């Protein structure tokens, strides 16, 4: 099937826009390939330090350049459910590497924080910038230059994007991302959301809420809703950086372990010492980036990736813009309904046909580039298979589902839930922003109502509890951008605004902060840029200003005289309270140097 004309057009314009930066990146990659990991060329003291803790066999193998060595970068910790399964991975990888005639060493660890733990708390102000800290930590691990390939063990929100930025900085190394999988299904997500709203209304207590949350988040693995963590996994597979079918296999199962071992052996097979040398910097090109954006739109994925994908692409010399997201969204059909865009979870998606069915449908309809490199070989069509175990416990790949086993969760292109994807870019006199509409009912996508301005999500909640939020309104939450306080997610607003909407009020949110992959049924214009701390127009909005948000048309604006609005001074705010406590003082340079959300909200 030929590629869709709009997909081809956007890909071509990204290539043209990126010509200089991509060429520079590839020249540097080529130089690094030629230099290579020259273990045998290290001074004896350097090399001895590099394998001092290894066993006799591994030491002997690492004394030359004949046996390949894998560097493992791990985000393991045993506090967070998604990363706890990684505890056993290094030993599995070392065993698999030895079986294949190679060596594997844990090169370094990276931090992995959980937005679910820090949501609404001070620590959340470190969350977005942890992505860039992770990239730097991973680079430190690989800087020993002892490795022929890398395996990256990470799964959640900022961890995978941070690891990707690091991997592309070491673009000469073959690299495979190794997931840990989602936890098994617990309390249905719609029931969890119902109890959250009841708690917000004061109809149930903290004990009932904690019981519901514990039944939802109950074991090892990622949360089962389709937020940023599971969007990461979809994206790594559709971009050809996982093994086929690896994304959504549950932790601590024989198939999960077999996939980890297979990833190890595949990483050894694609080093420069073999015949299939496949550096990650050559895999991730303009077509692969477009495939990632198409996957994001086709699944109604996390809005966080309107920042993360921009930063990841930039690390490969590729210039991706919000307009690219929007134009690709306009033509990409929405094929999944996974919470918050439906009632199913990612385990239901996987059971219905999962990634192999999704990729096959998008390829056959011309929405994905097939002519790409992957860690599995050439051509994305190789990802229409599913891994299974044979009677001897060996992993085999067979053809994936050719029909959806549950069209309410995973639809074919011919029965798409929507002819366009879940993301829209908004423009107007407020600036530019992003809205996720795949979970918003069509009749809720237009609102014209007076502004109610707040500077924290707690202020809005206090107003709600005081009975001050009656009638239609647009909540404006500002000074929540990268430079102001690190751009925390504002999920505490979701139950409150959901309650008001269910009471019959027309409500919406406009913010220079984030809502991410858990954005739900309330229309939310997020990532507004320029942010308030930069004097953006959002800082000029006053209580009572009439705001029109039209998600279908892609516009949002303050309905006052243009000259009056332009002359109005921007509000300023004392942000000194954001500078200290829970490590925030260590991130001052990040806040001071952060780019806008539209440019990736990073410091590189």
UniProtKB/TrEMBL annotation:
Keywords assigned by UniProt, alphabetized: 4Fe-4S, Carbohydrate metabolism, Gluconate utilization, Iron, Iron-sulfur, Lyase, Metal-binding
Uppermost EC category: lyase
Cofactor binding, per record: Binds 1 [4Fe-4S] cluster.
Pfam family, one: ILVD_EDD_N
EC number annotated for this UniProt entry: 4.2.1.12
Record GO terms (molecular function): phosphogluconate dehydratase activity
Cofactors demanded by this protein: [4Fe-4S] cluster
Residue ranges annotated for the Dihydroxy-acid/6-phosphogluconate dehydratase C-terminal domain, each copy included: 408-601
Catalytic reaction list: 6-phospho-D-gluconate = 2-dehydro-3-deoxy-6-phospho-D-gluconate + H2O
Residue positions binding [4Fe-4S] cluster: 156, 223
Domain (Dihydroxy-acid/6-phosphogluconate dehydratase N-terminal) ranges: 68-381
Gene3D superfamilies: IlvD/EDD C-terminal domain-like (3.50.30.80)
Pathway(s) of this molecule: Carbohydrate metabolism; Entner-Doudoroff pathway
PANTHER family named in the record: D-XYLONATE DEHYDRATASE, PHOSPHOGLUCONATE DEHYDRATASE
Similarity field: Belongs to the IlvD/Edd family.
Function: Catalyzes the dehydration of 6-phospho-D-gluconate to 2-dehydro-3-deoxy-6-phospho-D-gluconate.
Name of the molecule in the record: Phosphogluconate dehydratase
Source species of the chain: Kaistia dalseonensis
